[in-house]
């Protein structure tokens, strides 16, 4: 099969007049060039050059090939120029997100983001997100704030408490405050993605509450939807409440969390005033 390299080598010999200068132009050895031209002649089924002592001349078949080879080379160069002039796609802005962040907040952030880089998201635990940020696998993360984050490029977005989530038609949905004993007979839904799952389990156990469970799942959307349709109740950050779900405080259940946007140390611009990501995140969590 004839290749572009064959035609470029053929044209180099035509334009320089001999194999030595053509090999120099192509930055290959003369024997390599001679072998390539011999291969082209085998493909063409005829000789293309008459080899003389100091120069080479085209045969009739070679003369016919010249115009075609030049036209093909022009088209190749035009195609390469078209690609060279095309804008280089921007690399994506990679955002790591905690699974327990409300889907509505994340969808709002994605919809509002108007930065030049396309936004991509990937889930992970707090530890996984921080590792990926340190290794350069993501550009920023949405996670739980730690005291040491004050020394990193960061932007606190939301501080909230944990609540008992019930369907809006539940008998306890109108309460302003509930005790652990009030929910002792309730069927529970366990959110395995909860950052305080162990603390919550101990909190109920210490108060003598050992409820039956309808569902244990790491999928927060599924858990909250099961609450909405009346299959059980659960504890969750207040921001996970949605239409049809009511969030009621539990007495002495004083756990809180702060959602923070943390940027890689080499990308402090992502959390600065005016940053497209920072503005979208602020609006999403307001």
TrEMBL record:
Q: Which Pfam families match?
A: HTH_1, LysR_substrate
- Record-linked CDD domains: PBP2_LTTR_substrate
Q: Which InterPro entries match?
A: LysR_HTH_N, LysR_subst-bd, WH-like_DNA-bd_sf, WH_DNA-bd_sf
Q: Name one GO molecular function term.
A: DNA-binding transcription factor activity
Q: Which domain of life is it from?
A: Bacteria
**Alphabetized Gene3D superfamilies for the sequence:** Periplasmic binding protein-like II, Winged helix-like DNA-binding domain superfamily/Winged helix DNA-binding domain
Q: Name one GO cellular component term.
A: protein-DNA complex
The HTH lysR-type domain covers: 2-59
Q: Which UniProt keywords apply?
A: DNA-binding, Transcription, Transcription regulation
Membership in a protein family: Belongs to the LysR transcriptional regulatory family.
Its protein name is: LysR family transcriptional regulator
Which species is listed as the source?
Answer: Novosphingobium subterraneum
């Amino acid at each position: 099969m004839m290749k572009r390299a064959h035609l470029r080598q053929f044209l180099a010999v035509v334009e320089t007049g001999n194999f030595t200068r053509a090999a120099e132009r192509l930055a290959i050895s003369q024997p390599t060039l001679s072998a390539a031209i011999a291969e082209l002649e085998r493909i063409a089924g005829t000789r293309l050059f008459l080899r003389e002592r100091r120069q080479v001349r085209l045969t009739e078949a070679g003369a016919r090939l010249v115009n075609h080879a030049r036209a093909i080379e022009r088209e190749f160069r035009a195609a390469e120029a078209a690609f060279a002039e095309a804008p280089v796609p921007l690399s994506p802005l990679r955002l790591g997100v905690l699974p327990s962040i409300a889907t509505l907040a994340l969808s709002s952030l994605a919809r509002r983001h108007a930065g030049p880089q396309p936004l991509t998201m990937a889930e992970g635990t707090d530890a996984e997100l921080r590792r990926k940020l340190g290794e350069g696998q993501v550009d920023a993360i949405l996670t739980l704030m730690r005291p040491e984050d004050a020394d990193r490029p960061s932007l606190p977005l939301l501080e909230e408490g944990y609540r008992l989530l019930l369907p809006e038609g539940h008998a306890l949905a109108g309460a302003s405050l509930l005790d652990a004993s009030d929910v002792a007979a309730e069927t529970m839904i366990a959110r395995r993605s909860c950052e305080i799952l162990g603390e919550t389990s101990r909190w109920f156990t210490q108060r003598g509450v050992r409820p039956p469970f309808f569902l244990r799942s790491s999928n927060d959307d599924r858990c909250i939807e099961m609450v909405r349709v009346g299959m059980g109740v659960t504890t969750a950050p207040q921001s996970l409440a949605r239409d049809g779900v009511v969030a009621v405080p539990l007495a002495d259940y004083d756990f809180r969390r702060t959602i923070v946007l943390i940027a890689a140390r080499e990308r402090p611009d992502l959390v600065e005033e005016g940053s497209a990501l920072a503005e979208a995140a602020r609006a999403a969590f307001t």
